[in-house]
Amino acid sequence: MLCVGIFCMEGTETMVKKPKKKLLVTASTFPRWEGDTEPRFVLDLASHMTNEFDVTVLVPAAPGAKEKEILDGIKVIRYHYFPVHKWETLCYPGAIVPRIREKKIRALLVPFLFLSLYFHLWKISSDYDIVHAHWLIPQGIVQSFFKTPYIVTGHGGDVVSLNKGIIRRLKIRCLKRAEHVTVVSEYSRKKLQELLPVIQPSIISMGVNTKQFGKQYREQDYFHQGKRKVVLFVGRLVEIKGVAYLIEAIKKIDALLVIAGDGPLRKELERQAADIKNRVLFLGAKPHDELKTIYASSDIFVVPSITIDNGVQEGVPTVIMEAMASGLAVVASDSGGISALVHDGQNGLLCEERNSPKLAKNIKKLIEDEKFYNEITDKAQTFIRQYDYKVLAQKFMEVYKDVLSEE
Q1: What angle do CA 144, 149, 154 make, to 5 degrees?
Q2: CB 143 within 8 A of CB 152
Q3: Single pTM value for the model
């Protein structure tokens, strides 16, 4: 067979290789560089679509990040949204709303972000066959002003917050104009239907690359914990994560608490843990290559998330998936979309929000009952396979194909 460019000749027959459809993914949470500590679920999902789509990701710029690069085979474009680039701090590290809570002056950057995203989509959106906008705000709202067919994914906070006035009307406009809407949990679907009752969004969660996590990465006594069991938390140190309740729970247990993450509450949490500082280890934010060892070298993973004052709750935390894939038992509060992953008494243990005594009781049960612990972890590892990115990417690509077939 002779192939030149996209044309292949075999005998007297000529076959033309069909070009891939062009997919543009827009998001506001994304790794700033290789090995970054920022969540990478948008990148991981996109990287599993390259066999069938030509994928480009458009995300906000950040100090120190390249304007254009290739990450995991994905073309990445980072757009600037403020004339002084070192002040482009609205989106990273963390997410937009927590960044504003940390420094309220960052709210002044929001209109610049909207306008710059609009300008960049105006320049390139028509070059793509379909757009996948992650988060209703700002990506979905801005995309609704362009003709390129799009699907929009609500991740949690963007669904339940800012549902008044002009933003509410713009969110409804975004949902009505989208070719398809997805959310990450049943909780988010119900909240979206409160906003627009006629909508019927699909539930497609984010996921985990199960090959990147597992018990094979365990290093014995990695934290120099001796005979103590290791209780792990991974995430931003912000109010919604509820870490203060976990620290109170650990005060009642002879275990080592490892906290992998950073954020505005770190100093406050360190002060809270001062009386048990020999049993609490603050690691700071860690890149994903290190996290696979941190997960596997721990025993119990805790997600003590809470509902904060404005009603915002967790979506479906990918850290739970990573912990399950790593062979950990999971203890969590029943908040937001967490129960979509953690089924109480089956593949993990749940309790009410802000309940440190129950968190402690659940952790103790897993420490003291080895048989129960093994049953929980075995079921969790089996359960989480359905959230592998190969499976989830295929679900999204079927949505794309359905949309494109109707055009």
Answers
A1: 60
A2: yes
A3: 0.90
